[in-house]
Design a protein that fits this description.
The chain folds into 2 domains: 3-249, Amidase signature (AS) domain (Amidase signature (AS) enzymes, Alpha-Beta Complex), CATH 3.90.1300; 268-489, Amidase signature (AS) enzymes (Alpha-Beta Complex). The strands form 3 sheets. Strands 1-3-2-6-8-7-14-15-11-9-10 form an 11-stranded mixed beta sheet, with helices on both faces. The chain contains 16 helices and 15 strands. Helix 11 packs across helix 14. The radius of gyration is 22 Å and the shape is globular. The protein has helices at 3-14, 19-27, 33-51, 59-74, 116-123, 166-173, 190-196, 235-245, 250-253, 286-301, 320-332, 343-350, 359-365, 371-391, 439-442, 476-490, and strands spanning 54-57, 85-89, 127-132, 144-145, 149-150, 179-184, 199-202, 227-232, 272-275, 305-307, 397-401, 420-425, 428-433, 451-458, 464-470. The protein starts with a helix and ends in a 15-residue tail after the last helix. The protein is α/β, with parallel strands linked by helices and 505 residues long. One of its GO terms (cellular component) is endomembrane system. It comes from Variovorax gossypii. Keywords: Hydrolase. Its EC number is 3.5.1.4. This is Amidase.
């Protein structure tokens, strides 16, 4: 084998490696940042006509950054991501790149400086390759818009990679990069991670700075409920990235610093786990049953104590139905200028009974919620956080599905809130509303809890499936460690067929 062949073999071995492994190879001089970047750019050129995952690029700027990384490595500098190529969600400002959030009105909105989160990753040595696709206004479970077009799932291009961090998850699964930066308010990190078979972490609310995300540019206040966090092909890389993303707010840094508690346990068998596979009042889908049954089998094989909701004393588990109502209320009222309701939704709003306390009613009323009502819901949110804190005196994580179905086929019908999706149940397949796909995703969002989405293999159709681990407030390291311990025993990410590479490292 020639030297050139050995070099190509090394680059191929890094295609699906972790960011940590890529950084180690760079630090050891086994590969240069320039060569690793060119390998990434070649893969994007080869596959992205079909996937359309990375939609904003400046290859010359990326090459200049890679050359700077190589010079720093040659000087003996060592940083956690020095020379590692990454992409970030399009809604994050990257100096010199457009931030549009998929909105044609902002198609020429070039950012003057990096967002705080991007600056932190760049400061750790990361080479920004480009930005990944999103839905319009980040408000969909699919990633398509009139600026950049439609992104496809590497497991099946007839299916969506999810949203709103859909391009992010597809870029990871396709072996472009090992680390991505996304946001999550309704599962926008965790659902794409699930649809593509990668890892995603929704941090505790307020832990990661959102400054420099979205449009219009220049906003200082964070959107209520929203968080920023990492996606990766290994659980370990989630922890690496999270360490880089905390304590970024300049004003807070003058006096306050978050020091996250260590993971509660270092052995899987020590975890106390509640598993929930059926949303109250809803039938359990075959997908939900498959995911949770697979996790339960693995946990019990490892000696983990697994509990079901029916085994809990009354009042210990928060009321999930009422929590979801409050979530829909605060989510719908979290935009300063919410989109107009569709005609059918407006009719349903006008027909609501004053005493209708359902999640649907909360969603319909949310855009015009009076501040006094918002304050009541906010009090319920804070009370819920304290109730979960009491719950986690008895348990370490809650494991649930991420969604009631795997990646679905593209569906761009309008209005969005009237879309339905085929979900398989024991008694047959039926259409489920768009609004009913968010129960599991919303569960940790309202109380601001950390949640880690982790892959658990493939379903009978060969599509990736995932579960999520929800943990105590500010105990992000516990949910990431739980996912990592499972990964060490059972594996995690699987490369989709046809994308080459030698597997995860």
């Amino acid at each position: 084998m020639t030297t050139q062949d050995l070099h190509h073999t090394l680059l191929d071995s890094l295609t699906f490696a972790s960011a940590r492994a890529q950084a180690e190879a760079l630090a050891a001089g086994r590969v240069s940042a320039v060569d690793l970047l060119e390998h990434v750019l070649a893969r994007i050129s080869r596959f992205d006509n079909d996937l359309n995952a990375v939609v904003v690029r400046d290859d010359e700027a990326s090459r200049a950054a890679a050359r700077e990384a190589d010079a720093a490595l040659a000087r003996g500098e060592r940083r956690p991501l020095l020379g590692v190529p990454i992409t970030v969600k399009e809604s994050f400002d990257v100096a010199g790149y457009v931030t549009s959030s998929g909105n044609p009105d902002y198609a020429n909105n070039v950012a003057a400086q990096d967002s705080l989160a991007v600056a932190a990753l760049r400061g750790a040595g990361a080479v920004i390759v480009g930005k990944s696709n999103v839905p319009l206004a980040l408000a969909d479970l699919q990633s398509y818009n009139d600026v950049y077009g439609v992104s496809n799932n590497p497991w099946d291009t007839a299916r969506t990679p999810g949203g709103s961090s859909g391009g992010s998850a597809a870029a990871l699964a396709a072996g472009y990069v090992a680390l991505e930066l996304g946001t999550d308010i309704g599962g926008s990190i965790r659902i794409p991670a699930h649809f593509n078979g990668v890892y995603g972490h929704k941090p505790t609310a307020g832990l990661v700075a959102l400054r420099g995300t979205g449009v219009p540019s220049g906003r200082l206040a964070d959107r209520d409920l929203a968080v920023a966090g990492p996606l990766a092909r290994t659980a370990s890389d989630l922890g690496l990235a999270l360490d880089l993303l905390v304590n970024l707010e300049p004003l807070a840094a003058k006096a306050w610093k978050a020091t996250l508690p260590p993971a509660r346990h270092a052995k899987l068998s020590d975890f106390r786990v509640l598993v929930i596979d059926q949303w109250p009042g809803s039938a359990r889908s075959l997908h939900e049953a498959l995911v949770v049954d697979r996790v339960v089998e693995r946990l019990r094989t490892q000696g983990v104590k697994v509990t079901r909701p029916s085994e809990l004393p009354a009042g210990l588990l928060p009321d999930l139905t009422q929590s979801h109502r409050v979530y829909r209320s605060l989510l719908g009222s979290s935009l300063a200028t919410p989109p107009a309701l569709s005609k059918s939704a407006q009719k349903r709003l006008e027909a609501l009974s004053p005493d209708d306390d359902s999640a649907d009613a909360a969603w319909l009323r949310a855009p015009t919620l009076r501040h006094g009502e918002w304050l009541k819901d906010n009090e319920r949110r804070v009370a819920l956080r304290h109730q979960w804190e009491r719950f986690f005196e008895n348990f370490d994580v809650v494991v649930t599905p991420v969604a009631p179905l795997p990646a679905f086929r593209h569906n761009h019908t309008e209005p969005k809130d009237e879309r339905t999706y085929p979900v398989a149940f024991e008694n047959g397949t039926r259409e489920v509303r768009f609004l009913d796909l968010f129960h599991w995703a919303g569960l940790p969002v309202l109380p601001g809890l950390p949640a880690t989405s982790f892959p658990v293999g493939l379903d009978e159709d060969g599509l990736p499936v995932s579960a999520q681990a929800v943990g105590p407030y500010l105990e992000d390291r516990t949910t990431i460690a739980f996912a990592e311990l499972l990964e060490q025993v059972y594996g995690g990410f699987i490369a989709p067929p046809g994308f080459g590479g030698s597997g995860a490292a």
